[in-house]
Amino acid sequence: QAQLVESGGGSVQAGGSLRLSCAASAVAVGTYCMKWSRKAPGKEHEWVANIDRDGSTTYTDSVKGRFTISKDNAKNTLYLQMNSLKLEETAMYYCAAKRRCWYADEYRGQGTQVTVSS
User: Fold this and answer.
1) Coil, helix or strand for 61?
2) 32-47: per-residue pLDDT in tens?
3) What contacts 12, CB < 8 A, 6 or more positions away?
4) Distances in Å between the alpha carbon of 118 and those of 14, 41, 69, 78?
5) Beta-strand pair 10-13/112-117
6) How far apart are CA 20 and CA 9, in angstroms?
7) Backbone φ and ψ of 17, nearest 5°
8) What is the largest CA-CA distance in the chain?
């Protein structure tokens, strides 16, 4: 059964950086569309970024130029480098694997908390 385990969350001041990791098992990150999303209190679940099987990436507008999604196929791990973090980006961050980026069904991890403070 597919398992995704996020790590790297924590507390950071506004303007700071964090790097999230997502270790995958029973799912090869190189053969799936991999995704980061986030859920803030009182807000809807929000897609953040995708990286497709060929390495192509897409981002939600609010994080372009600040966040970078990447993957290491050999380590079977997904990453999200987050720079210049904003207060409103406090959320639980989730990674997910989808057979195709446009598919609705996905395997999702339990999340890692990111808290941005002033």
Assistant:
1) helix
2) 999 999 999 999 999 9
3) 18, 85, 114, 115, 116, 117
4) 6, 18, 25, 28
5) parallel
6) 6
7) -130, 150
8) 40
